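input
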Amino acid sequence: MHWHAGFWARRLEVLSRIIRVRMRRVNAKGNAFARFPSRCES
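output
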């Protein structure tokens, strides 16, 4: 049963890394999209 704790600890580490990378990508896209409408409106 002890191996389970290490297994989940590793999984959480990997998931947190993936989430961070995706958040960076989403934020970059969001910033690009946020700039577009203001240009079009003006």
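quick obs: DSSP finds one helix and no strands in the chain.
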